[in-house]
Every structure is written in C-alpha cells, then in structure tokens.
Predict the 3D structure of the following.
Amino acid sequence: MKVPILLYHALFDKDLNSEKYEINKKDFETQIRYLSDNGFQSFPVDDFFKTDNSGVTEGKGVAITFDDGNYSDYSIAFPILKKYGFTATFFITVNWIGTEKFATWTQLEEMSAAGMSIQSHSLTHPFLSDLSRDDLHKELDGSRKVLESKLSIPVTVLSIPGGFFSRDVLTMAEEVGYKGVCTSVPGLNKLDSLESGFLILNRFVMTRKTSFQDFKAIVSRNQRYVALCRAQHYFKAGIKKVLGNKRYYALWSRYLRKV
C-alpha cells in the first residue's frame, strides 16, 4: 500500500499572509474535513516502522506532519485535528521551544498525551549536510535525547531541516538511534512493507499555493501529479547542487520565499 505524507509548517487565522509556507486556518480545516468526509485514516509516521498496518484501508491512508514546532501547531492545528479525530506528527526544533511564536513544553506534553506524535527536527535547524561530524552528532543525538527526557516518549524519526541532506547525515541519523528520516522530496511511501532497516520517507510540501485540486490529487495518489511534483523537485535540487545550500537559501529568501 502506498500512501502520501503531507508536510505543513505554520498556520494562520488572519485574512492575509504573504509567507509561502504558512497556510490559512480555513484552508487547512477544509482539507482535514475533506479527509474526514471521504473516509481517510490518518496515522503518525511512527507507523511506517510497524510490521502490521492492516487496519488502514487501501487508498485511504494519509500521514499529516508539521515541521518546526510553531505555536500554531498547538493553537490551530491541534484543535482541528482533534475535532475530526485525526492524528499528526510534529517535528520540533528543540532550541526554539518556548520562544516567540513557538510551542512550549507544556503544550507539547498536552499534544503528546492526546495521541499526537512528537519527533525531532534537530536542535537549531541548521543545514545538516554542512556540519562537521561532531556538530552533526550534537544536532541529531542531542535533540532526540532532550525530547525523550522532557516528554518521556520514544523519538525515532528525524525531519531534515530545509530539505538539505547527504549520505553522511543519513548515516549519522541511523547511528544515533533514528529508524528513519522524513525529507521534503515529493512521493508516495510503502506503508504495508515488512522490510526492516532505515527508512527515507517522502513528503508533499503544502504551501499557500497548493490548491484544493492539488490537495485532492495528492491524497488520491494521482500518478501524473506525483510525477510532476517529483520533476519540479529534482529541477530545484539541481540548482541547489550547483549553488550550494547557503547560496540557494539566500536566493530563495530574497526572491522565492513569497512566490
């Protein structure tokens, strides 16, 4: 069974917002309502590492994820997910917890107790592939241990900050105890595979430019749309490789962030 993983960032409830990766509360609830009305079942990414997911109906599985740990995860996404009986995985940048615009430890504890999965998005959100081995270990192992200690939960999945990663990053993630990573590469994932080993999971990035028709194409696993998303991603990946992480991000921040 192949299923999509959706990647959200911050949500907002204002009338207007220019940030590409922030989505209006009304649009998010429309998407979740659609999933509910059409019999979709959500599950945390942790379930990809289970040997039996027979309870998920063929063609109706979807994983919902959020990166960074924004306050809107708690104030907007969490109530909507509970309203429709859905779960999600929240990847947290540990050193941002409790700072302005980000969720607190108490809020994360409440979300975890309600069945939401809390996982790692590193300590400080750097480009992991640019780090020395020692700094990479600190980001990956440190964030996992802090979350496990503070929340008394297993942390087994890492979300790659900024989508930049390398073979060394994957190797280190496995070495320090993660079972897999979530990327920002679009594509479907096998849920019912009994294969063991380290998993690299694809995700569809949801932005304010993602139309409702695009959303339905993703969750319905439209092969033509998936192929188009992957082609666009690898075109951008080629540019990243030529420019390097920092130069590409500087270009994106200046010209593409609000496109």
About this structure: The CA atoms of residues 20 and 209 lie 7 Å apart. The mean pLDDT is 90. The two ends are 34 Å apart (CA to CA). The first strand starts at residue 2 and ends at 3.
